[in-house]
């Protein structure tokens, strides 16, 4: 295909039309949204609105942690530890001796989470806590068994 000036002009016209439809046509203005956010008012500019965060949906609280049950932070800490553990396993610069403290931390957090689950009162976070605990236990068993040697 040969690119001509007409092709470039048509492409520019199409892109300008798309930008105009995506911003001005919907009443959205980045400047206005930024100003609203800085003033502390929500910057919702369409009927669709903004999707609530997972934290807000699960806990009924706000994203700042108000109304968030302590179990959420316990689960989140366990997920963060699992993430650091998997990153360390994937990094060839780490030895198993370097990963050992992470494995121990993961086992300790798993035991704490299991104790909390035994007490109950996790509500809508029950399944998430159980799945996180299972993943942590499986990874700890694999590490101790020597699967990563």
Helix residue percentage: 55-70%
Mean pLDDT, as a whole number? 75
State the helix count.
Answer: 6
Element-by-element helix/strand order: HHHHHH
**Parts with pLDDT < 50 across at least 5 consecutive residues:** 45-51
- Biggest sheet overview: none
User: What would you report as the Rg, rounded to the nearest angstrom?
Assistant: 25 Å
* Strand runs, count: 0
Keywords:
2 domains, 67% helix
Ordered list of secondary-structure elements with their pairings:
Elements: H1 5-23, H2 30-39, H3 54-59, H4 70-90, H5 96-119, H6 126-145
Helix pairs in contact: 4-5, 4-6, 5-6
What does this entry look like structurally?
The protein has helices at residues 5-23, 30-39, 54-59, 70-90, 96-119, 126-145. With 149 residues, the chain is mainly α. The protein has 2 domains: 5-50, no CATH class; 70-145.
Task: Give a short synopsis of this structure.
With 149 residues, this protein is mainly α. Helix 4 (70-90) runs antiparallel to helix 5 (96-119) and helix 4 (70-90) packs parallel to helix 6. The protein contains six helices and no strands.
């Amino acid at each position: 295909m040969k690119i001509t000036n007409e092709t470039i002009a048509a492409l520019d016209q199409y892109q300008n039309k798309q930008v105009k439809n995506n911003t001005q046509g919907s009443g959205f203005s980045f400047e206005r949204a930024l100003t609203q956010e800085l003033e502390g008012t929500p910057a919702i500019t369409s009927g669709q609105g903004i999707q609530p965060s997972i934290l807000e949906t699960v806990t009924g609280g706000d994203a700042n942690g108000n109304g968030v049950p302590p179990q959420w932070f316990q689960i989140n800490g366990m997920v963060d530890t699992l993430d650091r553990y998997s990153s360390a396993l994937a990094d060839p610069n780490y030895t198993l001796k370097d990963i050992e403290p992470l494995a121990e931390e993961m086992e300790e957090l798993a035991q704490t989470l299991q104790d909390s689950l035994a007490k109950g009162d996790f509500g809508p976070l029950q399944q998430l806590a159980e799945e996180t605990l299972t993943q942590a236990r499986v990874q700890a068993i694999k590490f101790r068994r020597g699967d990563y040697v």
